[in-house]
Inverse folding.
């Protein structure tokens, strides 16, 4: 499945007003299990930092969902968000200006090349590593751009069924992925040899999380790809499916997983 056309359709619907854009961000926070995992880790990171002027880098920001969430935690934080799509960057800059968050700046850039040596306390990289071939170049850029002691957080599919790949030769559910998922030891090793001194990695999307992903994301995306008419059906679908997905998400975030289709990686310079 090609994800970009679906994202463009969603953008047309939700980018028309700031209210709809904010509503869309809140929907993503509710629906995406990875957002639950990332936000939990970021709350821990931010616990004693909200009154400090910090610099944050959102690497491969996409719609700007995590930039929006982080910029709501503290007005003292400055956030630089990078994406390769010119139109997406322009759209995000216009939105954040309209809602009065001048501490946020989007720029067109490639995460495998963008560097600001020693500039940031935090780098956030969600759903990016699986899209780029030169992943070690990206990791070097992240470590270079962090201050000593700064943290990188990554969410990416694992090789335990990530990208909905379960057998050899099976294609990724998202066609734009250049790899089906990371081996947990492999991504640790890559981070350590590219400027990081400490790495913690754990699985997400365990057995319950995989069910939630199908209910809240896979099946709705397949419906939207099939026809725009499913935009009308989706609210009724989620009225039935989301209460189940909510409980499954809550359980997945609170459990420790021996394996899972996702990875949450934290690395410190």
């Amino acid at each position: 499945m090609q994800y970009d056309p679906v994202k463009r359709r969603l953008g047309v619907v939700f980018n028309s007003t700031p209210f709809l854009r904010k509503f869309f961000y809140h929907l993503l926070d509710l629906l995406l299990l990875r957002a639950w995992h990332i936000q939990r880790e970021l709350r821990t990171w931010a616990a004693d930092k909200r009154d400090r002027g910090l610099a944050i880098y959102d690497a491969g920001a996409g719609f700007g969902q995590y930039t929006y969430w982080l910029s709501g935690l503290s007005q003292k934080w400055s956030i630089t968000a990078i994406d390769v799509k010119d139109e997406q960057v322009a759209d995000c800059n216009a939105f954040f200006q309209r809602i009065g968050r001048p501490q946020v700046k989007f720029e067109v850039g490639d995460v495998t090349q963008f560097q600001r040596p020693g500039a940031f306390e935090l780098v956030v990289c969600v759903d990016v590593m699986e899209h780029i071939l030169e992943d070690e170049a990206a990791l070097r850029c992240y470590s270079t751009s962090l201050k000593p002691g700064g943290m990188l957080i990554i969410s990416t599919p694992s090789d335990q069924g990530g990208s909905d790949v379960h057998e050899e030769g099976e294609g990724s559910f998202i066609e734009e992925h250049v790899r089906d998922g990371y081996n947990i030891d492999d991504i640790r090793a890559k981070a350590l040899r590219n400027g990081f001194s400490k790495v913690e990695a754990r699985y997400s999307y365990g057995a319950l999380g995989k069910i939630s992903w199908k209910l809240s994301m896979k099946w709705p995306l397949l419906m939207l790809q099939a026809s725009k008419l499913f935009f009308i059906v989706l609210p009724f679908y989620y009225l039935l499916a989301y209460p189940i997905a909510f409980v499954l998400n809550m359980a997945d975030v609170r459990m420790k997983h021996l394996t899972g289709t996702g990875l949450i990686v934290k690395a410190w310079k």
About this structure: Strands lie at 55-59, 78-83, 104-108, 120-126, 146-157, 198-204, 262-268. The CA atoms of residues 83 and 256 lie 32 Å apart. The first strand starts at residue 55 and ends at 59.
